[in-house]
Description:
Number of strands: 8
Shape: globular
Strand content: 15-25%
Number of domains: 1
CATH architecture: 3-Layer(aba) Sandwich
Number of helices: 8
Amino acid sequence: MVEVIINGHAGRLEGRYHQAKRPDAPVALILHPHPQYGGTMNNKVAYALFTCFKDLGFSVLRFNFRGVGRSQGAFEDGPGELSDATIALDWLQAQNPDARQCWIAGYSFGAWIGLQLLMRRPDINNFIAVSPPANEKDFGFLAPCPTSGLIIQGGMDDIGDPRVVEDLALRLNNQRHVDVDFAMIEEGDHMYNGHLVDLYKVVGQYVIAALSKRAPAKKRRGRRKKSEIAEQMLLEGKSSDAAEDDYVDDDEDFDDDEYNDDDMNDDFDDEEDDEK
């Protein structure tokens, strides 16, 4: 992972970028929560999303909206941040001209911006929206929603109303030609405290299943090293059942005490220390 500076309409944008080994790897752009409430690209949920896509073989970019961290400019509550996301996606795609797919993933305010970007960019193949602020922002622009995706919500969220978010997902899923999945992490609050690994697992399993639907199935050739599984599964293509089997069987650390939210927090803290 490297630090990058992108030229935006309001000045430079600060980002962190991971380049996948394969030139045709899919790409993902990660959008952080509300800047005026402490949201940055280093938010733990945004970092979990970044890590999940990185671990699954994507080239991934997360960045600070204008006025956040070392990014220049001032907060605009929508228009400016959408411009920033557009510029960041252009940069990401320019680095990966052979990418097979393009994904957008946003958390809270970042989910609202990401879904607006989705409406303007037919080259986006799928989306992840974590805790979209459906009780505060208007999502009427998703008419129709142009592509399938996943909406995730914490059942104990005291900032966003879980029922309103679930209604949004159901309404979008009723539209023709798209499948909008909905996942409720029952004990999750708005920050997903104690449930970052649950979030990581839900996103990872959805991504694997979604990509496997778009690629021809390959015959399984026995078990491989864990480090090889995610990238091969996503970039070479497998049936949905085979993808799920490998993801669960070979990433057993998701299901025991060897890998938990403390470990994810440690990874996050290690990165913050490296940046200081």
